[in-house]
Fold each of these.
Amino acid sequence: MLHTSLSLDYVLRPSNLKENAPLLIMLHGYGSDENDLFSFANELPEELLIVSVRAPYKMQPFGNAWYAINFDAEKGKWSDNEQAKQSVELIAKFIDEVANAYNINKDSITLLGFSQGSILSYAVALTYPEKVKNIIALSGYINQDILPKNLNEHDYSNLDFYCSHGNADQVIPPDWARQTQPFLNGLHIKNTYSEFPVGHGVAPQNFYEFREWLKKRI
């Protein structure tokens, strides 16, 4: 069932806990919708309250995006970073709205993003580290153009990242993803990085690995 009561549309799987449930917010990739990652929900721990969000920009003929990706002869493929920054703010606001609307544990909030949703998960966590605890970043990379300039002034001690990528990814080059771990290490942020023999997608063993990682942290 699609919920429209907050600033972004979303689908929800309730927790089996009556109160203080850990929260998992899912952010899909470019051209997809809230049902994509939500297919994982039934296989994830029952104590999680799971909210899968629809990105705000409708695409034609179907699908949604968090920000535009433009193609032209001069620039090649490029992202609309201003739109991406606006979506970072929108997601940050949405986290607060969900925390206020549902009986959740505000100290156990996880973002799970794929591709464009993963890029924004990095940016939300590195901009607002006080709002989240765990980040599962699948098939994405860190876009430094949408991060704050004063990263070294933030306290990132509560953050923990699980990052993964397909080593045959034809959409986001694996080399981009491989820069993630050194970047996070440079900020002294807890993280793990894995690669799997797939393209731009989530292999079954990738799912099982991040599920076990998450179970230990909620």
Note: The chain has one domain: 10-216.
Amino acid sequence: MDPITLFTVIALVAVPTVMFGGYSLLRLLPAGKLDDHQTASFRAGHAHAGVLLILTLVVLDLSADGGLGQTARWILCLLLLVGVLAQSGGFFVHLAIGRRGSWSAGNTLTVGGAVLLAAALILAAVGVATG
């Protein structure tokens, strides 16, 4: 199976998990289960997950007919997958172990995800330009 097709399916299946995250947040807020720091981190992680999944679907669609070879397509898809998980997941790690106003492993994970996503976008741009 072509990696673009495989990862498009993965991204589409992941969208309902983000939807469930929104539902969970709506259930946790009125119950007072989260403090202000946790609420902010949850909202940021949830928002980034949703936006980055849609970005992933757009990039995969643009890359489907691009000039990238099979190996480059696999690299692109893996960069997108790990980048989205790291960037949005870092907010949830910070929610669990971080404190407001201080750096945590979650922040580092979020920054690492951003770097991976930037690399994926540059690779996708090369593919579109050479396609």
Note: The CA atoms of residues 3 and 69 lie 11 Å apart.
